[in-house]
Structure formats: C-alpha cells, structure tokens
Design brief:
Chain lengths: 888, 337, 204
C-alpha cells in the first residue's frame, strides 16, 4: 500500500515484512498497512484504542520478548512483531475460551449469527471445548427502548458501544453499570434507553448484544442482498448498504470509511427504511373524473397530462405553466424536469424547494466566491482550527456534518463557536456560544463583523491587499454596539470574545444554517458571513464559508438550475454566455427573462396568469402555511399534474397523479451538500406500476412530441455533464481541497460587493412587531423526521411521533404546565391545541414545534413575510409571536 | 367336393387356427413376462386374476380402449395402413402350416387350411411384405426415432431373410417339395428321421436368422429401447400399437411353427408308440419349446451392435448357409446315384 | 480350441445354462402394496417438523437448515412470536420436496431437534403444487409420524432418545445443547498456512 520511504520515520517488521511508519503508529495500524489482519473486538479505526477485549494480542520479539495488545501499543523503532506465532494463537484461543465461558450458545436465534466476530474467531482459532466452568448469565433482555435491545448475556464487555457513543456521537447515553461478572451495558441508572438512536452502538457491537427491534429475527446475514446506496433524508448524503431479503428491506448497515459519514449513520438513515414499503404508496397513475381521482393506466394518464399541459400552453403561453421540484428527486430527474419545463413546455416558471432559503446560498456563494454549495468538505471540518456555526442546530439538521464537527472536538479539541436562538447540542460541546433572540441572526453576525473591525482583528494580508473593500466595511460599522445588543440580547463582551477567538484561529470555517439563509435578509446575512471570513483571512483552502442544506438533494436542485434565476450548472440566469450554451445544448430558445418565484407563482395561479402546474417530489400544501393560500391557488388552476410517492395534500388537488419510485427502487445520483455526486442503486422492486421520475418526465415529453429519450440515468447524466461539470465525476467532493476563490473574490470585491454594501448592513425590522403576543414560536427541524417520507416510516413514528410543542421546563413550571399537558397556541392568525414536551432545548421565551409535522396545524398559525427579490424572495414563515396557555 | 363345403371347411379351420394363434399370442406375452421374471428372480404379473393369468386380457382391453394418436406431420394414410401391412402377412402364413395329419371333415380333408404345393414360398413372400409395414410405419411417423428404427429394420430383414432362405434350401433338397405337408411327411417315423439330424447347421442358422427376422433380442435393432425409445412404433398408440405387437408375436409363433415343420418333424410324434397323441399336440409342444428358447435367449444375451449384426449376417451366416447347401447337394447327389 | 469353442458357441451356451438354472431360484421381490419392507430407523423419508410435548413448535426459525440445504429447497421466514417479544419462530416454512435430495443435512443442522425425517416414502400426488410443503403440512407430518422422527434422530446420533427438552432452552432460549466435536474433530488452525488464513479472512 505505502512504501517505507513514503510514510515514515521509524520501521517495524511484522511477520518478516518491514514497513516504515510515522511515530505514534500502533501495531494494528501498521499491520493494516501491510494487509495483515489482526483479530479485534473493541478496536475501531475512528475511535481511541481501549485494549479491552485482549484478542488482538501479538508477540513482540524485539526489543523485548513479550505479548502486547496490537491495538494500543505504539511502535518503537526496529520493533519485530509476530501476529500468528504459536504463542499468539494459543493466547487468543485462551482468551476466546474465557469469553465463551459466559457467552450463551444461542447463535441460532441471535441476529448477529453469521456475521459475529466471536463466531468467526472461534472457528478460526479453534475454541469449542471449554476448559473453564462458570454459571451462564440468564438476564432478561432489555427491550424497553424503542429501537435497541440490549442482551447482556451475549455481551463480551468490549466497550466499543460505549466508546462510539462517547467518542463519535458524544452523547454518552450508555455505559457500564454494576461490577465484575454481572457488569451490564445500558443506559445509566437502569433506565430505559432514550437517546438519538443513531444505532452506531449496534453497528460496532462485535456480538449480538445490541440488536435492532425493527429488524428483530427478520433476517440472516447470508440471506440478504447488499446494495450500496445514498441516504435520501438530508444533505449529508451518507453511503450505506440497504440490505434486502426477498425484495423487502431488512435493515440498513453502514460502510466503514466510505462516503461523507465514514461509516456513521443517524437515526433517519439507520432506521427510516420503512417508507418504501408503506401501504399508502401510490401504485398506479390516477386521473380526475369529476370529483374523484380514479386509477388509470399509464397511457391514459400520460395522454391526459400532455393534453392538459398543451392546452394551458396554447391558452396562456409557456409562461402560463409552472413547474415545482422537490429535493427528493435525483439529479437526473431534476435535469430532465428542467429540460421538460424550459425546452418542451417553453416555460420560464421553474422553481423548487430551494425557495425555502437555500436559493440565497446558491446565488451569493456563486456571485461572491464562484462556488456552488460548500467551500469545505467534511474532512476539512475535521481538520479545522476553529468553527463558527451560525443559525443551525447541526446535530439535528445535518447530523453527519455535525459528527464531523464533533470529531474535531474529540480528537483535536477544536473550538466551536455557536450563534443560535436555541440551546443546541453542539452549543454544549462548543468553546463559545451566543444565545440570541430568535430571528436576530443578522444582527448577531453584524455584531461579530463589527467586533472584528473595532478590535483590529482584520487579517494583515487582507487589509494590505484589498484596502478599498476593507474601508467600505469599516464605514458601515460606524454605529454603536447598542443597536446590536438590543435585538439579539448578546453583550459586547461576548461578541468581542467570540470574534477574537475565531479571528485568531489559522483555519476558521464558518457554517451557515437555515436560520441564516431562510431569514428575511438571508442573502445579506450570508454576504456578511463572507465578509467576516474575508476580514479574518479565512477565504483560503481548508477554511471558508459553508451554507448547510436542509433537504436531501438541495445542491442537486441548484446544479440542475431548479429556480427561475438559475441555469443548469448553478449559474445565474443573467449569464448570457451560459444561457447560449444551454440553448445550443438543448437546441431551443430560452426566454429572455427569468420566470416567477414560488410565491409569485401561487399568486399567478389565483390571478389566472398561470393555467397549469407540474409539481414533482414536493408537497407545498403541507410544507407552506395557510397564509400563502397554496391550496386555493392549486384549486384555481385549470390543470395540475403531481408526481409523488404518496397521495399528498397537493396530489389530492391534482388532475393527474403519477406514482414515482423511491430511491431504493431505481438508479440515479444525489448531490450532497459538499457537492459529492453519489449513486443510488436499485435494491428492490417498485410497488405496482410506479416508475422512476425521469421516465415519467421523458414519457410526458414524448406525449408532447418533444422527444427527450434516454436509455438510463447514466445517459442523462452524461448529457447533463456537458452543462453541469460536477456531474462528470462520481463520489468526489467538489468542495474544499484547494478550491481557489481568489479570482472570483477579486471580481466580486470590485463589482457587486460595493454596490450592495449600502443596504447590506441595514438591520431588518423585528418580526411582526404589531403582534400582541410575546412568546416566540419557531418551527424547528427534527433529527427524527424531515417530512413526507420520514412520517411514513412506522419505525421513525414509533421513535418520535413528534407533534409536541417543546417548552423550556422552567417557563412551563411558571405556567403550571407539565409534560404531556395540552396547550393552546394562539397567534394573530388563529390557534391550535397541541401537547407539550419539556426540554431545555428551547430557551425561555421561545417554544419550538417540529417543522415537518402537519397534523396539528401549528404551521397555519405562522405569518408569512416574503423577502425582497434581492434577498431571494424567500417566504419567511418559521418565526411567529404566539401566546401559550394551558387547556383545562 | 362342392364349393360350399370347401368354403365352410376353410372357414371352420380358419376360425380354429386363428383362434388358437391369437390366444397363443396373448399368452405368449404372459409367458414371456413370467419366464423372464423367473429368470430374474421375480414373480412377474400377479395382480389380474390368479397368478396374473388374466393380465393379457387386461392388457388387450387397455390397448383397444386407449386413445389413438396420430402425430402432427405424419402421413396419415400410410401411418394408418402400416400396422395392418405388418399384421396380415404374419397371420396369413398359418394358412399353409399343417397342424395335423389329414383327417376327413365335412367330406373334405382337414389338417391344413390349404395345402399349397408352394407353401414355403408363399410364407416367405408374405414375410417380405411384412417388412414394408415396419419401414412404412417408421417413415410415416415423422419422428427421428421411428425413422431410424424403420431403416434398421429394412436393412436387417433383407439381410436375414436371405439367411433363412438359404437355410431351408438343404431341407428342400432332401424332401424335394415346397409343400409343408410333404416336408412333414418326409420326416415320418420317429425322431431320428427329423431333418434336424441331417441339417444341423441349417437348423442353427435358421433359428438365429429367425430371431433376427422377428426383431427379438439380441437382434432387436429396430426397437432398441435404450437408443430409439421404441423404434419404428414409437409414435403409435392404442389399437395400432396393438397391431404391431400382435404382428411381432404372431411372427414369432409362425417362424417357430415353420422351424418345427422343417426340422422337427412337424405334427409327427417323436416315436411310433406315441402316435396315439394327436398331431397338433406335438406341433404345439415343438412350437412352444422353440418359443421358450426365444424367451430364454432374450433373458440371457445383451443386444448386439448394429454393425456386429450386419457383419454376422453377411460374413458368417450366409457363407455357412451356402457351404451347407453345397455339402447337402453333394450328399444328395451321391446318395441318389 | 478357441475356434471350436466359437463354432459350437460354448460360452453362449454356458450363459444360457446359468440363466436357466436361475429360473428355479426363489424370487427376491416383494409384492409391494400387499407386503412392505421394514423401514430402518435411519431411513431418510419425507421431512417433518416436530413439536414439544406441550404442543409448542420446536422450530426457532434460525434458517440453518436453509443454509445447509444443498439443493436450496428450504425457505424459512423467521419472526418474533406475536405477543411474545424475543421468542423467535418460523412464521413461514417452505420445503419444496420436488427439489429435496433427501440428504438429511437440514436435520443435522437443526439446533433444537425440530427437523426429523419420517419413514414416509409414498410422496406421489396428483397436483404438483401439493409437493410444496408448508409449515402446516410439515407439522402435520411430524404429528402423524412422531415415533419415526424420534427414531430417526436417535439413529443418526442427534438425540439420546428423550428428544431435547424445552426446559433446556431457558425462558429466553439463551442456551442450546452444546456441540461436542470431540478432541480429534476440533477445527485446528494452529498449523494453518498463511494463504489459507488469508483466504479465510477474505471470505469474511
């Protein structure tokens, strides 16, 4: 793998093979470099060694003749090691005998049977007759937790699960309790386990001590088929093996060292595999006959859809048709959807869920830095010197990106600074925090910039190289700290301390969450963060500004140009050369002006400007509040085509509903937030007659007599790669690693930067000042759910039914509200009754409600303010002032 | 003798002879299965009737009630006619076989249905026609197995008919007649007068050729189950299959009768003091002894290869038969002069 | 001499003599439907599933029989017993007897003596589909031929005659009868070559 001259300074000889390794390398790592496998239960490449299981014992011949643990022993220069000498094998056998004195022989009913390390090593090292005698444990299995079952009888006490929970997940939700022979692993104080249920303890368990309730006894490892695919829930894009048996998903297993997660998964990825098999999946196309949607054949439904779309085009022109895409769709689907809208239907009105906030990231990042998506990869995050996290509950919204940050905290004591209105998990682990009033992120960011400017923390190189730009910012920072302290609630001292700590780090990475981009001044807020990075000299490889995505394929939406102001490749519509390239590639003429954004489209539907709409992979009726009149807008349409997995609220209003295939039933690619284009692969058969989205778009185009014919997703991606260079290579991150933004930055500083400076630092009005209500309600993201797909998982719904209002316990006590009580939430727009959950996650004065939850109509209490065109026309509806009172 | 009496006499004799022959055929199948079973330490059919005695009747009924299948692509007319072409020559030969010494019946003479002076030629002429049935049946079936079976049969029958023909020339030289009754009477007066003793080589060649001629093991090339499924009648079923089956067994009985007549003195008793036993009993005994011999060699010998069969016929049997004729002719000349 | 022998066909006559003598030897066949063989206890007839004395199903749905089956004719669908968490059983069990080669490996693989072969050898049916045995049919066979099944397990040294009792399993079926390979049959890997070890590892 690596040669001696390349890696290191000291040499070691293992089984007669010599290799040079860096100082500090442990024997097991050197053996892995040489391709020699040493058995181990507790060692894990991403965790600190703990030498608990004693099976990795090896014989060291030189410099002293002794037995050592390979996982924990650092190599000395000139060391000679034997990994399979008779002495080693005898020791290993004895160790196995000792482990097997208590381990029950219930392999036939154990879910680990067949992939159990203890089984494998027992067979390999020959341990079957036991010279030792003891009483076997017969503890009842702990099945009180929702997902994870603990079987203490099978546990060999290697501690890998505890280690993964404390080192990687940093929750320490499980630990050893009791002592000696009766030691058991579980939640503290013998309580039932109630954690994030990431399931990584189960993955690292070498035996069957921790098993999944959702897959209990349903599979045997050798019966399963493995399909490597990409997770469909959030923008992290983790790789995992979807394991299927007889066409049904049996479980999800991580792939160590592969993909952005490096083998870590979150609860949604690990246990959210039931929605594909949900009974409510659409299986046949539906067409409207009178008031009813009735099942129809594909030919009939396609003809009907084409007829309706063509009629609207004839009546109102191409601009009379709207297309709305969601982040569930794969890259190929999105590209084809764009081509269908803009080429076949000649409509400029192609928008998507980017409009909920990420559109600002797409436009500003490209304008200022020439980057689409993130500047840094997850690996950069692990290696950074400091991280500033603004407006993101990263461990809930992008759990695996959060793990990258946590990895830096564990291994390198990386300082993490958090600016947020909620007490997030990462805030507790971080080096510094600013807990601000909800909705005041922009002010807080301005405060940080002001602190950098006022305290003279500007990077010397930057100040010398770009004096004009620095001067322009300095001019904007003339005001007092008072105007920042009032809206945010943060003090000058806090701001200065954080700014100083961040500015002093060599490689500082800024992560911007949805509360930055999705705010009223989302574009400006991100531009301010770019300013902050610019001033502190952090616009360089290994450092930078990174907007975090919310939805699965949000970056795919950007790359496919799924917004009126974007072209394929994520380029701005105003880029004439890019538009000409698209026109040439598609052999068509694009309209001169970009189309309408999402909220304009809904207005247009009600006003009659828009006659037909094609909505794929999203459910605006559910995800947007009542004030936007989405349902009424869709009802006003002459013709609506919806393409989805389930009969959503939007689909109920459609004239034609196409059943789509989920990510597990088809091939394609997703783009994660780093810009990695990763494959999804077919693992099972689709229910009924559902088809992959791209085939439906292609078939509709065929009916419209504009043939967009492809043999498969690879062919679409090959064509798209002509316009979207990111699609050319799979599985490589397009972020970080030497991205040089200097040229783009200089063009920006000379042009748009100064032009928008005037109102960039004007603080927005505090939200809804007219409201008499005092408490602030925020629609928060949940770790367990993301929306339509996750709520159709019976497993995830069991873990977290999640229609509860989260309140601060101290504040609840004041109002005499206990956990589980029902409260009435009242805003200017109405009221709703919901149960309460107490958690210090919510600050005093703030209540949280899960964003994805549609049952309780809390969303309809939210007032909507649509941002200006410069700020991305984002409908801001996640903050509202409410009053919470107990219902008796 | 009046014509009416002649016809009546013929009809009665035909009825009796045919009845006996067909019953023999039926019980020949039973006997064959039983004897083979005993040779193989088994019991054979035991289910229908005591000791399975009614098995042939059950088989016959079954065959006649089965569906008659004509394969698609078969030549329907030839396919239908072939079994009949096969069966009729086999049965018709019994017309000239003397089953008893002449006795008077209805004013005519019994003992033979008709005593032709060229009886032997008549039999061989019709036996040659029987080969057509096999060849046509094989060809008309539109099946590769049947066709191969038919072709083999053609080659084999032509070769071995020659041997049979040459084998009996010696007997003809001795008896100086083609009438079977004349040949029988020539061997009158005890078993030492039988042609067997003056023509042993002819007897052996005749028996071997007869086995080949009737497609019996070890010379059952046309059927050869392990190679050709069932040979020329692979595609036949029901009644047509039964016809082929009948023809095969009738042929066996016919050649055995003929062998008895030509070499074993026919209906003549083996010694003077046994003359009180009626002639047909002796003929039956001799014939059944030969039939047992047929079964016996079936139970003993494996099938020979086709090239071995042809080589044996042309290179061994025919020269031996020719030499036999030469020796006999010389002997007869010397004795006569 | 050889020529004379061939002319007189002495070998053939010797063969015929032998066959003739054979005719008078007693027969060695059985008149099958009326008379039947005594089937030995180790006979590998139709497969059956057995129950415990209290009537509960022995099968724990471990799929080891499926893994051991050389002709892939077994399909086990395992699950938790409804209402009894942690008790594993076969929700469905299929055995395609048309593909079964009656090797008995499945019975050897079974850790709870749930599978046994009966002495039933008359498997003919009029409908091919009836040869796809399901769980109900297999347990039915086990009930009808319990004695055969027990005898089979004893004959093949898989049981001492008592049939492995339910009590040994513990409440949660945590222990199974230990596998005694004996000193000589222990899988020895001390003398394992490096290549073999690597091959072993690459398989995992």
């Amino acid at each position: 793998m690596t040669t001696a001259t390349k890696v290191g300074t000291i040499t070691v000889t293992i089984n007669g093979e010599t290799i040079g390794v860096p100082k500090g390398t442990r024997i097991i790592q050197a053996a892995q470099l040489l391709g020699i496998e040493i058995p181990t239960f507790c060692y894990h490449p991403r965790m600190r060694p703990q030498a608990a299981c004693r099976i990795c014992t090896v014989e060291v011949v030189k410099p002293m003749n002794k037995m050592f643990m390979a996982c924990a022993t650092e190599i000395m220069d000139g060391m000679e090691v034997l990994t399979d000498s008779p002495r080693t094998l005898a020791d290993r056998r004895t160790n196995l005998d000792l482990l097997l004195t208590q381990h029950p022989l219930d392999c036939p009913v154990c879910d680990k049977g067949g992939e159990c390390k203890l089984q494998d090593y027992s067979v390999k090292y020959g341990s079957s007759e036991n010279p030792f005698e003891t009483k076997r444990k017969d503890y009842p299995e702990d099945i009180r937790s929702t997902v994870l079952d603990f079987n203490s009888n099978r546990c060999i006490l290697c501690g890998a699960c505890i280690q993964v929970c404390s080192d990687i997940q940093q929750l320490s939700a499980i630990g050893f309790s009791k002592r000696g022979f009766i030691t058991v692993v579980g939640a503290p104080m013998g309580e039932p386990l109630d954690c994030e249920f990431c399931g990584q303890c189960m993955d690292v368990c070498p035996v069957g001590a921790i098993t999944s309730r959702f897959s209990k006894y349903k599979f045997r490892p050798w019966q399963e088929e493995k399909t490597q695919t990409t997770c469909t829930y959030c923008g992290c894009g983790c790789q995992y093996n979807l394991r299927t048996m007889d066409g049904e998903v049996s479980r999800v297993t991580p792939i160590e060292g592969v993909g952005p997660g490096q083998g870590s998964l979150c609860v949604r990825g690990h246990f959210g595999f039931h929605f594909m098999e949900d009974a409510q999946r659409l299986t046949k196309p539906l067409v409207r006959r009178g008031d009813k949607l009735v099942e129809a054949g594909w030919d009939e439904a396609l003809a009907e859809a084409a007829k309706g779309l063509a009629a609207a085009k004839a009546a109102k022109g191409g601009a009379g048709i709207a297309g709305i895409a969601g982040g569930r769709l794969a890259n190929e689907d999105l590209y084809l959807f764009g081509r269908l809208m803009r080429n076949a239907l000649e409509s400029p009105n192609f928008d998507s869920t980017l409009r909920y906030g990420y559109i600002n990231a797409a436009t500003i990042m490209h304008k200022a830095l020439g980057v689409t998506g993130m500047m840094n990869s997850f690996d950069d995050l692990r290696r950074a010197d400091a991280v500033l996290l603004v407006g993101s509950d990263i461990t809930q919204e992008a759990p695996i990106c959060g793990l990258a940050v946590k990895d830096g905290i564990t291994k390198r004591k990386m300082p993490v600074f958090t600016v947020d209105s909620m007490k997030t998990e990462i805030m507790k682990l971080g080096a510094g925090r600013l807990v601000i009033t909800p909705g005041s992120e922009v002010a807080a960011i301005k405060g940080l910039v002001k602190a950098v400017v006022d305290e003279g923390l500007i990077d010397a190189g930057v100040a010398a190289k770009y004096p004009a730009a620095v001067a322009a910012i300095k001019k904007e920072m003339a005001g007092t700290y008072k105007e920042i302290e009032t809206p945010t609630g943060a003090t000058k001292a806090d701001l200065v301390a954080m700014a100083r700590a961040f500015a002093n780090a060599d490689k500082g990475i800024i992560l911007a969450g949805p509360r930055v981009m999705g705010g009223l001044k989302g574009a400006s807020a991100l531009a301010m963060l770019i300013d902050l990075a610019f001033l502190t000299g952090n616009l360089k490889p290994g450092a930078g500004v990174n907007p975090l995505t919310g939805e699965n394929n949000e970056l795919g939406l950007v790359l496919a140009g799924a917004a009126p102001e974007l072209l394929p490749g994520g380029l701005p519509w105003s880029d004439g050369a890019a538009r000409a390239r698209v026109e040439q590639a598609w052999n068509c003429a694009l309209p001169e002006f970009p189309g309408n954004s999402l909220t304009d489209l809904f207005d247009g539907m009600r006003e009659g400007r828009i006659g037909a709409a094609y909505i794929a992979g999203t459910d605006p009726v559910r995800s947007l509040p009542a004030e936007l009149n989405v349902a009424a807008s869709l009802d006003a349409l002459d013709f609506l085509v919806v393409q989805d997995l389930f009969l959503t609220g939007t689909a109920l209003r459609a004239d034609v509903v196409f059943p789509a295939q989920s990510y597990a039933e088809r091939d394609g690619t997703f783009t994660n937030m780093e810009g990695r284009v990763q494959r999804i692969r077919q693992a099972m058969k689709a229910p009924g007659k559902a088809r992959p989205d791209w085939q439906i778009f292609s078939a509709v185009a065929r009916e419209l007599e504009v043939p967009l014919e492809y043999a498969g997703t690879d062919e679409i991606r090959a064509e798209a790669a002509g316009l979207i260079p990111q699609f050319a290579a799979l599985d490589v991150t397009n972020a970080g690693h030497g991205v040089d933004v200097t040229a783009a930055l200089e063009a920006y500083l000379a042009g748009a930067y100064l032009k928008t400076m005037d109102d960039r630092y004007d603080l927005p009005a505090v939200l809804n000042t007219a409201s008499p209500h005092e408490t602030r309600l925020y629609l928060a993201d949940s770790l367990f759910h993301s929306g339509q797909m996750s709520t159709h998982n019976w497993g995830l719904m069991k873990i977290d039914p999640a229609d509860e209002l989260v309140m601060n316990p101290r504040e609840a006590r004041k109002l005499q509200i206990a956990e589980g009580d029902k409260v009435r939430v009242t805003s200017l727009l109405g009221s709703a009754v919901v149960p309460v959950k107490l958690s210090s996650h919510a600050n005093p004065g703030t209540v949280l409600f899960p964003k994805h939850c549609a049952q309780s109509h809390v969303r309809d209490l939210m007032g909507v303010v649509v941002g200006s065109r410069e700020e991305g026309s984002v409908p801001q509806f996640r903050f509202e002032r409410v009053t919470v009172e107990k219902v008796h | 003798m009046e014509l009416g009496t002649t016809v009546l006499l013929a009809v009665i004799q035909i009825a009796v002879v045919m009845g006996v022959v067909l019953l023999s055929v039926a019980y020949m199948t039973y006997a064959e299965r039983k004897v083979l079973s005993f040779m193989q330490d088994r019991l054979g059919p035991m289910e229908v009737g005591p000791w399975g005695l009614l098995q042939p009747i059950a088989d016959g009924l079954k065959l006649f009630m089965k569906e008659d299948i004509i394969p698609s692509g078969a030549n329907k007319i030839i396919f239908a006619v072939a079994p009949i072409i096969c069966l009729i020559p086999a049965l018709i030969g019994f017309a000239v076989v003397p089953y008893s010494e002449g006795f008077s019946l209805l004013g005519g003479t019994g003992g033979t249905i008709t005593d032709l002076n060229v009886g032997l030629l008549y039999i061989f002429a019709f036996a040659s026609v029987g080969a057509y049935g096999v060849i046509l049946g094989g060809w008309a079936s539109n099946s590769k197995y049947a066709l191969l079976g038919g072709l083999r049969s053609g080659a084999q029958v032509i070769s071995y008919e020659l041997v049979i023909g040459l084998s009996i020339v010696g007997v003809l030289l001795l008896s100086e007649s083609l009438s079977l009754r004349a040949i029988t009477e020539h061997q009158d007066g005890g078993f030492w007068h039988w042609n067997l003793w003056v023509q042993p080589v002819a007897f052996v060649t005749y028996v071997i050729a007869a086995v080949a001629e009737t497609n019996r093991l070890p010379f059952d090339m046309p059927e050869a189950e392990s190679e050709l499924v069932a040979g020329f009648f692979t595609e036949y079923s029901g009644m047509r299959f039964a016809f082929f089956f009948l023809a095969e067994y009738a042929n066996m009985i016919l050649v055995s009768c003929l062998a008895s007549v030509l070499f074993l003195g026919g209906y003549e008793a083996p010694a003077e003091f046994l003359n009180f036993v009626p002639g047909f009993v002796w003929l039956a005994l001799k014939t059944w002894a030969l039939l047992f011999f047929f079964i016996w060699i079936r139970g003993t010998f494996p099938r020979v290869r086709f090239d071995q069969l042809m080589k044996f016929g042309w290179k061994v049997l025919i020269p031996v038969a020719l030499v036999n004729i030469l020796v006999t002719a010389v002997g007869v000349y010397i004795v006569n002069n | 001499m050889g020529l004379i022998r061939s002319i007189f066909m002495t070998e053939l006559l010797m063969g015929m003599k032998l066959v003739f003598k054979q005719m008078f030897k007693p027969y060695c066949t059985l008149q099958y439907p009326h008379v039947r063989h005594d089937i030995p206890d180790g006979y590998r007839g139709l497969m059956s599933l057995l129950r415990y004395e209290d009537g509960s199903e022995r099968c724990v749905g471990c799929s080891l029989c499926e893994a051991a089956c050389p002709s892939n004719c077994i399909k086990v669908v395992s699950d938790e017993v409804p209402g009894q968490p942690l008790v594993r059983y076969a929700r469905e069990y299929y055995l395609d007897i048309t593909r079964c080669v009656f090797c008995g490996f499945c019975t050897e693989a079974c850790p709870v003596d749930a599978l046994a072969m009966t002495k039933v050898y008359e498997a003919s049916v009029f409908d091919r589909r009836d040869l796809m045995f399901d769980k109900r049919k297999l347990y039915e066979l086990g009930e009808q031929h319990l004695a055969d099944g027990k005898a089979y397990l004893i004959a093949h040294n898989m049981d001492d005659g008592t049939l492995f009792p339910k009590e040994g399993l513990g409440d949660n079926r945590y222990s199974f009868p230990p596998v005694d390979l004996g000193e000589g049959e222990r899988p020895v890997t001390v003398g394992l070559t490096r290549e073999a070890l690597e091959m072993e590892l690459s398989k995992q």
